[in-house]
Design goal:
ABC transporter involved in vitamin B12 uptake, BtuC; 2 strands; 71% helix; globular; cell membrane; transmembrane helix; cell inner membrane; membrane; sugar transport
Amino acid sequence: MSAPTTLEQPTAQPEPSKKNNGGSLKAYLGQNIQQYGMIAALLVIVAIFQVTTDGLMLNPDNIAALIQQNAYVFILTIGMVMVIVAGHIDLSVGSVVAFVGGICAVLITDFELSWPLAVALSVLVGGLVGCWQGFWVAYAGIPAFIVTLGGMLLFRGLAIVILDQTIAGLPGGFNDISNGSLPAALGYIGNLDGITVFIGVFAFVGLALAQIRARGELKKLDLHTEPFAAFIGKLVLSALAIGAITYLLASSAAGTPIVLIIVGVLVLIYTFLMNNTIFGRHIYAMGGNLPAAMLSGVKTKRVNFLIFVNMGLLAGVAAVVTTSRAGAGIAAAGTNYELDAIAAAFIGGTSVNGGIGKITGAIIGALIMGVLNMGLSIMGTDPAYQQVIKGLVLIAAVALDILNKRRGK
């Protein structure tokens, strides 16, 4: 009897390694259509206003004013992105700005504290407000919508109590936080402020080196990278954008606004926090799939608490900036600030369902809001119609987000 014949199974051959070239440019652009769509929308809006305002939109002094007037939106939007990505919302930040701004003005005038100490204590008070709201959300389990709606009423009432009348006469150094500019320490290059030119060059070199290093790390680990053409295109567009802003600010009467440095530092810190730290990854994990994040060991209560503490701290910074800009403590300060921050986050690509959002995208959203405000004001548009236009832009941005998700399914 012959031995049974066995069929030899073919040995699986490993697929030849494919060099990571980042995929096709068309596919990359399709995957990032919303991000680049917002940049394109910003450029189109600027171009329209540049034409309709007879060139006033890109007047150097107007660009500096745009940054100073909208600094509070940039600052609050940074925190709001983190809140929304985690699946929450914060309706109280405008009232917190009024409350903390009132405390700052009282500390400087009534208690005669030096303004740097008053600023530090005011930001600390904002953090304590965040602790209060974070406790109810994270540990008491009350939805953030309800907690912050109550906070909106609570802190607006406290602001009115503290500021029964406007407190003015704040020191010049404090007012310069929002209204001042960096001194011309490097002199002038022709008609351009030297320190502004230096900051612009430094910003682009830093950005380019960071992008090159990040791409190198991804390639070293054989991870997916964007197409080389897209990478070069981003660097070129970044150079053009930074160069244009640098030229405009260097040509303005005062140069680089101090508040721009504050906003820039915050953007760098929080971009790193969200992209390169465990805390940032936990925020995205919670917003993307909360049950899975909990099963993975994410301490969701702690993360939620810290998110609202951080929002309180940033509201404190925005309160200092707002009070400095006005040169006075005003009970009505911060009205609708929460709506501006939420709108900027959504316009900048933050998902209404949580889990998706970038600090840089939200800053673009805030710029769109700021350009709309300034352009419509220069044109003399009625404030009521300004609200209508901004509302339509917000709806369009959220609709685009929903359509992109449906298309991706």
